[in-house]
Amino acid sequence: MQVLKKEVSEFELFYDLIFAYAISRIASILFVGANQLFSFQSLGEFLMLTLVFWTIWTYQTVFANRFSIKNKISALFLFFDMFWVIVLAQSINVDFEKTHFTFAGATSILFFSIALQYYLKMKSTEDLVVKKLCYQLAIVLCASGLIGFITILPWGAYAIRFSLYAFSIFITAFFPIVMKKALEDFPTNFGHLTERYSLFTLLLFGEAVIAVASTIVFNKISIGSVLFFLFVVVMFLFYNAVYKSGIDRQKSTAGLVLIHSHYFIFVGLGLSIVLYENYVNGEIQPLFFSLCLAISLVCFLGGTLANMIIYSKREHNYLPFISKSVLYFAAWVVVSLLLKDFMIPFLVANSTFLLFLLYKVKQELV
């Protein structure tokens, strides 16, 4: 089947700006308590809220990727959705129960909006493959939107309603994996899809630089802030190296690994930045920081490397590289635990490890 050829449009970039803002807002729920730790509840909510925004953005992105948005109706849908994403972002609160009505309601409106776009496409085409794909995606979005509205009604305990809401989001997020065959029958424009995800990730790196700025006082620049900035730069270089040199953007694929790996990339990047910011400001326990940073780097590095391996430009055995990388990472964890109470050596070790891993990745891509 012929794949639609298109470039990332200014409408899509405009749309992505508000999502980058929204995802950066999620960090506000990760506040350090009196014990200098994040609570398990706030970490769970961070993962959940990131999943919500990633799911909404992904469904709209995949629609634009396959069916284009170069018409007035699609542009109007984007502007309508942008307003509700703003509402969604402003509903983020450390007391999630307090804003659940607005948050879940806005989520449902967005799901119905995207479902309607798929429905209109289904009615306007004679292609049976496209009809089937649009029908399945519209159904799951409508079901999730309906469940979201049900959870804002005053019935039962809030914990039950939130669990139902979270379950519906999880099913919606990962339902496309079940539809792999239908999605492969109408593959993505992989070049456009990779560009869209990389540009959005770039926006998130921009938010990371803003986090670095929050640790700097105009008349006092600490070495911790400098090393924090170096960490962000190396993370960016790592992601960019894989995107530029490690991915075959001409592949015919449903892009499911690229799509779902970026949830973990977004989580890993967002969590590591919040952790670094609090560590540089001396507001978080070093041991907790070390362990959580290790988890966040597994998400970010693992998600990035998964794309390099699955969408490789050439036939290559990555098993030796992966095996050695696991050993390198284990060694870094040991060193981090030994240096956790000494900020400067610890941060230097972090950046050194990432630079070393970046060097190894570049060697694999030559």
From TrEMBL:
Residue ranges crossing the lipid bilayer per the database entry: 12-34, 46-63, 75-94, 100-120, 132-152, 158-178, 199-217, 223-242, 254-276, 288-311, 318-338, 344-361
Keyword terms: Membrane, Transmembrane, Transmembrane helix
Pfam families attached to this UniProt entry: LtrA
Transmembrane keyword on record: yes
Transmembrane helix as UniProt keyword: yes
Name this protein carries in UniProt: Low temperature requirement protein LtrA
Organism in which the protein naturally occurs: Enterococcus caccae ATCC BAA-1240
